[in-house]
Structure formats: structure tokens, C-alpha cells
Amino acid sequence: HIPDDKSDVCVLEEPEHLNWFRAEGDSWTKKFQFTVGIVHTNYKAYAGAQVGGTIAAPIIAEMSSLMVRAYCNKVIKLSPVLQTFCPEKEIVCNVHGVRGDFVSEGERRARCAAESGIDTSIVGTRAYFVGKILWAKGLDKLMHLEHFYRKTTGEYFAIDIVGDGPELEEIRRAYLGRSTANKALISYERGESSGFDFDMPKTIREFRRTPIPANFLGRREHYEFAHGNKYKIFINPSVTEVLCTTTAEALAMGKFAIIPAHPSNSFFLQFPNCLPYQNKLEFAANLRWALEHEPEPLSPELSHQFTWQAATDRFIAASAITMREERIRAKAKKSRIDDRIAAFHIAVSKGKRGDVVRALAGAGPVAQQSGKWKPYIDGIKGRVSDAIETVASFGQDYTFWLFVVLFSSILYALWTKNALFSPALGSIEL
User: How confident is the model over 146-160, as a mean pLDDT?
Assistant: First the structure.
């Protein structure tokens, strides 16, 4: 419990997510003098990618907008790729930083360049990617870029792919081709053949004749894997991120980052080692240039932008409500509506009724916030369990008669269909 005299400022990470299934209690904006929400997950995009996404995505978007409006005085979005929640309250600003190790590595390279005139510590020519191994993370786009680069230069570019994910084996085989060992497997147990087991291909890309020179290295910690003199080029073709942390970490270490010119990457465009591209030709040109040059050492000012101290400064500045914003809010006249939304949401979230609403909305275990609905739910679960056991025991005792009833029903249905549509009986109006 936070005393009222100490309830000054509240920062809500993902305010839309926190409040979908909120428990009973006062509104954040009533309890605290000032409430700031930080939005960094694109739930609308995630919902749209699922089965039934065309229906779920707009519902999630509208619900998220209502929650942000109702419970925040100011909203900070990490990048413009996120949906619009409440125009008069929101601002786009990156308020995230990276770990100090990454910044220290960039500073080390800058010192090395200042002492020798050039950063000779970077000798690697292989590019690398760090992320979850999913097609949706841009690995399909990376493959298209590989093909285009080969068409223009005559060869693929070498890349190390770091990460893990449910589509790892499918993607690995698509990049490297289908090995002879994976075409067919005949296993033997105890000296006897267990039969022919054909390994079905996941995609047609597995039948490529020339493998892409990609190493799949599994899950690694980014700093431990990439610091030092092995890599100077980071590639991330993903456009599904809100703000990619691995891109920030690579730039902080003083590496080239070849990334799409996309709203989610707008923060990174200020850094000289960021090489954005709008098409495949620009990507190939950026990669060729990066292979033949060294990254520019980061100035102390630019290096500071990646620290959490700088992120905190940006957060404080972005949280403020300017006089211009206050005039826009007064003109919009939505503050009372936002308060009513919060009051209505709190009212339907109270007690047993709130538990029911949360359960119907899909909250699962989180639905039982009041404790008043638990005995009722436990009683229903008990009665359903007893009914299932009764049906199961009846089926075991009367399996033969159940089969007779089912078979008779099928015969009756077939006879009725033939009688209705038999030419001998003529047409029957239904």
C-alpha cells in the first residue's frame, strides 16, 4: 500500500496490458498526482497475425486505446510504428538504453581509433544477426537479400545467425539446403529394420543446389558473442519490431548496422554507422561499402545516447506536458470522457461481476481477483467433472448399446435422405 501523501508519480509499463484485466481499486490518475504510460509492444500487430486476427486486431486496438486514455496523463510510445491511442496525450520517444558493457566496448574502439588513427581492432568480414529464429523476424527477407546480392556480385555474403526458436530447423534447412542425411532415414533397432522413414521437406527452398554460407550458432549472449575484433557488420532486416534492442546494442559497440528505412528504426538514423536501405539495391551497396570500410568511432555525445542515464533524461523531458499540449487538450475536451471511461471500467471490474467479465474476456486465472467467484467456479468445475465421469462410466458399461444406437441413427439418416430425394417419390417441397 502506498500512502496518499507519497503518491506523486506513477510509471506504467505497457498501460494497456496492465489494465485489460485490472483488479478492484482506484484509478491510477486518481491515486497519483501524475501517471505516465510507456508503450513498447505492438499488441495490435500480434493479434492480427493470429487466426481470426481480422476480428481480434481492431478489438484489441480499441480496448488498448480506451485503457491508455482512461489511466494515463501522458503516453510515451517508443516508435511511431505503434498505433494511435490518444493524440492529445501521446509522444514518440525512445526511453530505453542498453547495458553498460555495450557502451564500454564502443568507447574502447573509439580510443583505439584515436591512438592509431584507425580502428584496427575490427578484422572480421562476416556479418551477423541476433534474434529469435522465426521467419517473421525478417529471416525470409534476409534470404531474398542474399539472392539479390549473389545476382549482383556473383556470390552470397557470409553471415552468422545467433538465436533460437521454433522454426530453427526449417530455416536452417532452407538456408543450407537439404543434406543427404536428411533425405531418408532407415533406423534399425535390435538388428531389425523399423521401416522407411521419409523426412518431408518443410519448404521448397531446401532443394537449393548452392547453400547460403550461414552458420547457425544457437543461443548466445550478444555482448559475449560479438564484442572484440570478430565482427563489424550487424544486419537486421526485421520490420516487426517496435524498437529493436539488438540494433541499439550493435551500434553502441561501434559496429555498422544495416537496417531497413522503417519507422521502427527512426531513432537509429542519427548515428553515422547506421546504414539504412529502402530496397535490395541499397542494401547491396551498403553491405559492399561496409565490407570495404571501418565503422566511424562514436563521439562521447553519441555514445552517451545509448546509456540509461540519457534514456532517463529523455523520459523526463518526454513526460512533461507543455503549454501547447495543454491548449490542445483543453480544445479537445476529452478529460471528462476519459474519467468516465475509467469510472465505468472500474465499476464493471468490481466483485463477482468483475471476475465474470474478466473470465469472459479470456483472463484465465487472472479473472479471479475478488475471491468471491472462486467457490462458484469450483462448484461448476466439480459438477462438470462428475458429469464427464458419469458419461465415461456409462460408455464403458453400455458400449455395445451405444454402438447400436449410433449405427441405427446413421441408417435412419441415410434412408431419410434417399426418401426425400428419390426420383420415384417425386419432388418434395421443403
Answer: 94
- CA dist list (Å): 119 to 102, 114, 297, 417: 17, 8, 8, 83
Per-residue model confidence (pLDDT) at position 68: 93
C-alpha cell recorded at residue 62: 480499441
Q: How far apart are CA 240 and CA 42, in angstroms?
A: 9
For residues 267-284, one letter each, b for 16 or more C-beta atoms within 10 angstroms of the residue's C-beta and e for the rest, the string is bbeebebbbbbeebeebb
C-alpha count within 13 angstroms, C-beta hemisphere, residue 61: 14
- The structure's pTM equals 0.76
Instruction: Report, in angstroms and rounded to the nearest whole number, the Rg of the chain calculated over CA atoms.
Output: 30
423: pLDDT strictly greater than 90: no
Measured CA to CA, the distance from residue 25 to residue 349 in angstroms comes to: 9
What mean pLDDT value characterizes the chain?
82
Mean pLDDT over 165-170 rounds to: 90
Rounded to an integer, what distance in angstroms lies between the CA atom of residue 73 and that of residue 94? 18
Cα 400 to Cα 112: distance, rounded to the nearest angstrom: 85
- The Cα–Cα gap between 430 and 147 comes to 61
Cα→Cα distances 367→63, 235, 374, Å = 17, 42, 10
Count CB neighbours of 65 within 10 A.
17
Cβ atoms of 370 and 352 within 8 Å: the answer is yes
Asked whether the predicted pLDDT for residue 21 surpasses 90, the reply is: no
Q: What is the mean pLDDT of residues 282-286?
A: 97
